[in-house]
Amino acid sequence: MLNKDQASERAQAAVERAVANGAEAADANFIANEALSVAVRLGALEEVERSEGAELTLRVFLGRKSASVSTSELTDTALDTLAERAVRMAREASEDRWSGLAPADRLLHGSPPALDIDDGADVSPETLKERAMEAEAAARAVDGVTNSEGAGASASRSVVALATSHGFAHGYAATHHAVSASVVAGKGSGMQRDHASHATRHESALEAPGDIGARAGERAVSRLNPARLSSGTMPVVFDPRIGASLIGAFVGAISGGRIARRTSFMQDMLGKRVFAPGITLRDDPHRPRGLRSRPFDGEGLPVSPTVIVEDGMLETWLLDSASARQLDLEPTGHGGRGGGIATSNLYMDVGNITPTALIEDIEHGVWVTELIGQGVNPVTGDYSRGAAGFLIEGGEITRPVAEITIAGNLKTMFLAMTPANDLRFRYGVNVPSLRVDGMTVAGD
């Protein structure tokens, strides 16, 4: 696999060929990946998979016309052919008045920041097998677990590079290590399944596989013999591992493309209250070893920590260059590779109360640990998801509950949201436990 300097050189070579073939502007995104994964089930090796690939995507502009072409061949001859084809396609394309490269004066200058997201990922298949075996064995050892859907361990390394005809050419490498397990508890029609996983940039930061597996087993067993729930309006508490999906829906609603098309339930809310007072939402691309840390965005713009919501007030849209032009604003460093917007390490600040205090005044409610289906209308904000979790009765988490539906409108839900103080950085999007009052829950 190419190193980051070689990757930058190949991307730059593609751009130079595009300009030589008549392109007025061009950029090239390169990504290469090496991955190794091992899967086991019921104590036996089930699969060992090794993959390696690379792809370079060249985008060229002729006025407001553009075209993109990709290749996995990186020889000079292949790049010559790629550039010729891309320019030829652009000549036949329709015009898009908003297309174009990021402004040259906004591009990252100097060396990208060091983020400590690459440890080399030199892990043997034997090591991965041991981790997967240990995780599954620990999960199956939990009393009440009756079957296994398997466990896995993986390690991968990626190299990313971007070059533009404005003179930008940089690359970086990142690694990813993960362990997961999924098991079944109970028998017959009463079976329940659950899982656990952990992912890190550095191998040394992985949780012990046995701890991950035990958590999967305990979660599955805790869901046995779910109670039935009568429909009604009640508080719903979202577990941190699924509460991030609410923030994902919010991010989609404040993306520049949706705002420019006027197809968002957050339309016209910039500078206004969108969350309850005290709630702050941040995006931090510079978090050391963060799962979504990056030194520059998909257009070559510098990235920096951003306060998206402060004390409940919406502070910014998320804009790439195209949507910024449409809205007559400046791009925010959230451009994704290949267009659209992309956040980095997105998280909500901790609240002021413990999870125990969050639920102690709830006489009848639900703690949700699993969501099923999509059920979000990005235009209206209407929200309806299948769910499972646990009843909250008399201020305590009691019996498991399944086959329910929770519903509301995201605009109202955000304003009725209360975060706890149990934030942990485990995913690309991280939130503490979140309480939302007044949701509609449909059961029996």
Write the layout of secondary structure elements.
Elements: H1 4-20, E1 25-41, E2 44-62, E3 65-71, H2 76-92, H3 125-140, E4 145-164, E5 169-185, E6 192-200, H4 209-222, E7 232-238, H5 240-253, H6 256-261, E8 281-283, E9 306-310, E10 313-314, H7 321-327, E11 346-348, H8 355-359, E12 364-372, E13 382-393, E14 396-409, H9 410-415, E15 417-419, E16 429-430, E17 434-442
Parallel strand pairs: 7-12, 11-16
Antiparallel strand pairs: 1-2, 1-4, 2-3, 4-5, 5-6, 7-17, 8-9, 8-11, 9-10, 12-13, 13-14, 14-17, 15-17
Description:
The protein has 444 residues and is an alpha+beta fold. It contains nine helices and 17 strands. It folds into two domains: 4-222, PmbA/TldD superfamily (PmbA/TldD fold); 226-444, no CATH class. It has helices spanning 4-20, 76-92, 125-140, 209-222, 240-253, 256-261, 321-327, 355-359, 410-415, and strands spanning 25-41, 44-62, 65-71, 145-164, 169-185, 192-200, 232-238, 281-283, 306-310, 313-314, 346-348, 364-372, 382-393, 396-409, 417-419, 429-430, 434-442. α1 (4-20) crosses α2 (76-92) and α3 (125-140) packs parallel to α4. Residues 192-205 have a biased composition (Basic and acidic residues). Residues 231-443 form the Metalloprotease TldD/E C-terminal domain. Residues 29-90 form the Metalloprotease TldD/E N-terminal domain.
Please tell me the overall pLDDT.
96
* Number of alpha- plus pi-helical segments: 9
What is the CATH fold-level name of the largest domain? PmbA/TldD fold
Strands of the widest sheet, in order across it, are 3-2-1-4-5-6
Unreliable spans: none
Assigned CATH architecture of the largest domain: 2-Layer Sandwich
Protein name: TldD/PmbA family protein
GO molecular function, one term: metallopeptidase activity
Organism: Stakelama marina
Family: Belongs to the peptidase U62 family.
